[in-house]
């Protein structure tokens, strides 16, 4: 009898200690809100925790590739003239061409201030640039050069642009792959990084990384490419 009374009393106590479901729900909501708020506002201590976990390794290159980008114009210009988007006479015509799409900055690249071309590409040209963008991001991820951007220094040119360029450089040809939508230049002299001040060694490594990616695409017959000397850039033509 006594043990029975003790058992009933203990049961009652346990019941009292157990929280009501509505209280549990409120505690869960409050807990979640504090968690979300902490990440949303990123107070200093959370930033420190995140930073501590992200160990960046020094970026290393696997070799030099830029000297291997040496396709001659004669190897691709006939193909490009036949299969590319027909050249536009003016900027107005180019912007109205449904076969050309505007190109904005990508995840890992920026568009330079353009003087003799326009930020437009054919869908083939854009997919090639997207592939270089993705491959570049994957290469530098988790390294001390993470967050670096390469710079696209020239894209599609109109006939007017090509005429103007010829005035600046008398050796420039009337034939230019840049008029057909699938061609762009990536400068190897400059890269951007908001987090780190890039030194000449970093720039060299990033240059060879872009060259390696382009070289790989050349081998896959996705493009032709040339390392230009007059303008420090890799001239890339989609294939
Ligand atoms: Zn070029």
List keywords for this structure.
239 residues, alpha+beta, Muramoyl-pentapeptide Carboxypeptidase, domain 2, two-stranded antiparallel sheet, 14% strand
3D architecture notes:
- The chain has helices at 2-17, 21-41, 44-53, 77-83, 91-96, 123-140, 159-168, 200-219, and strands at 101-102, 109-111, 120-121, 149-154, 183-192, 223-227, 233-238.
- The chain is of the alpha+beta class and 239 residues long.
- The strands form two sheets. Strands 2-4-5-7-6 form a five-stranded mixed sheet. Strands 1-3 form a two-stranded antiparallel sheet.
- A hairpin with a 5-residue loop joins strand 6 (223-227) and strand 7 (233-238).
- 30% of the residues are buried.
- The model has no long low-confidence stretch (mean pLDDT 90).
- The protein binds zinc ion.
SSE map:
Blueprint: H1 2-17, H2 21-41, H3 44-53, H4 77-83, H5 91-96, E1 101-102, E2 109-111, E3 120-121, H6 123-140, E4 149-154, H7 159-168, E5 183-192, H8 200-219, E6 223-227, E7 233-238
Parallel strand pairs: 2-4
Antiparallel strand pairs: 1-3, 4-5, 5-7, 6-7
Helix pairs in contact: 6-8
This protein binds zinc ion.
């Amino acid at each position: 009898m006594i043990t029975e009374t003790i058992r009933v009393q203990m049961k009652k106590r346990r019941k009292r200690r157990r929280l009501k479901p509505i209280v549990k729900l409120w505690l869960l909501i409050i807990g979640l809100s504090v968690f979300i708020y902490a990440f949303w506002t990123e107070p200093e201590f959370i930033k420190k925790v995140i930073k501590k976990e992200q160990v960046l390794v020094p970026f290393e290159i696997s070799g030099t590739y830029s000297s291997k980008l040496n396709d001659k114009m004669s190897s691709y210009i006939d193909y490009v003239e036949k299969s590319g988007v027909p050249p536009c006479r003016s900027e107005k015509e180019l912007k109205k061409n449904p076969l050309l799409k505007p190109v904005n900055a990508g995840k890992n690249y920026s568009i330079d201030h353009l003087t003799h071309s326009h930020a437009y590409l054919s869908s083939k040209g854009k997919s090639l640039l997207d592939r270089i963008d993705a491959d570049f991001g994957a290469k530098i991820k988790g390294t001390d050069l993470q967050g670096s951007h390469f710079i696209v220094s020239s894209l599609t040119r109109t006939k007017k642009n090509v005429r103007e360029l010829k005035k600046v450089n008398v050796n420039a040809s009337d034939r230019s792959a840049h008029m057909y939508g699938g061609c762009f230049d990536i400068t190897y002299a400059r890269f951007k990084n908001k987090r780190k001040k890039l030194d000449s060694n970093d720039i060299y490594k990033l240059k060879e990384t872009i060259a390696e990616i382009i070289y790989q695409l050349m081998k896959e017959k996705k493009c032709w490419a040339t390392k230009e000397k007059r303008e420090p850039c890799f001239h890339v033509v989609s294939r």
